[in-house]
Structures
1.
Amino acid sequence: MSVLEKFSRKITETAKAAAKKSGDLVEVTKLNMSISAEEDKIKKTFAEIGKLVYERYNKGESVPEGIEGFCEKIKGYEENIKEMKEKIYTLKNIKICPSCNAELEINANFCSKCGMKQEKEKTEEEQEEEAPTNEKEQQ
Ligand SMILES: [Zn+2]
């Protein structure tokens, strides 16, 4: 075998090894992606389990021991979200249709999306008039 032949064989072997190596790396990358996909599915399924348990908690049904605290936490987070959404509605001067959740102008009488008649927003005066007067009656 000539020096040139030896040299070219060596190059071919190196190229083959490199190709195998890069093929293996591609395979490893693919497998890692598949693992991530499975892990995502696990996370989503855990979330589904959590939702089911939380629904039971909300209906007043019994939940497994040690779970109540987590449900209370979620309840708190939901209340925070509700408060923040109400702040946004005030800032944007809108109200939400109780039937279809469409954003409506604060003075709208009917929903522009589903047509539901809207309760009039009470003024502070009207609310004061409706305030219970039991205290005065008792005194
Ligand atoms: Zn509506």
2.
Amino acid sequence: MSASSAGYLQKHGINILTPDSPQALALEQKQFSPTIHGDKVWSSTYVVMDYLLENPPPAHSQLMDVGCGWGLLSAFAAKALDLNVIAVDADPNVLPYAQLHAQINHTEIHTQALEFDDINVQHLKGIHTLVGVDICFWDKLQPSLYNLVERALEAGVDQIILADPGRGPFHDLSDRCKEHFNGRIEIHHCTIPVEESAELLIIEKDLLPY
Ligand SMILES: C[S@@+](CC[C@H](N)C(=O)[O-])C[C@H]1O[C@@H](n2cnc3c(N)ncnc32)[C@H](O)[C@@H]1O
């Protein structure tokens, strides 16, 4: 693991909170207790950071991070990639952690409490890249995410990147997106701050079959 002098983990110069970080514990003490697994940075995030650094969206374009949780990916996209970021999650209790990640990295993101099913075409207009990490972990989330992908494409989103360690519901989502939207799976690895592999489901507007 790599740690900064302030006691955070670090990757690509970005400070990363852990559940033991005093500022994260302070938020927990203020009753910001996430309820849908948004209680830490999930490790597939680190794999997506590497992927986006190697395949950056255009500077100043808009990125939406759905199911953002603690929002590390959002802070990274704003700070390291110079993107305009909106971080969205159903659980309002995760959003202070996402803002804290932006704050400790001296950058800015927008946050909004929204469920996948409530993200409509208007919300998605103007978004270049839609990302979601570790968000397809229950069977019931699969149709919600498939429909969100469909609305994103309808709104003109250029690329959608969904990452997961490889759970069953994510594979079901991937199969549907491969069939209907020419989606593809790429497997990527990272070593910092932990060794991790993740499957990235990538759907690109330019590769749509229609
Ligand atoms: C496993 S965490 C992943 C968080 C973050 N993306 C990461 O990788 O660290 C899943 C996140 O999805 C959010 N979530 C779950 N169901 C959701 C829904 N129906 N709509 C929006 N967000 C949802 C949870 O609140 C949680 O923050």
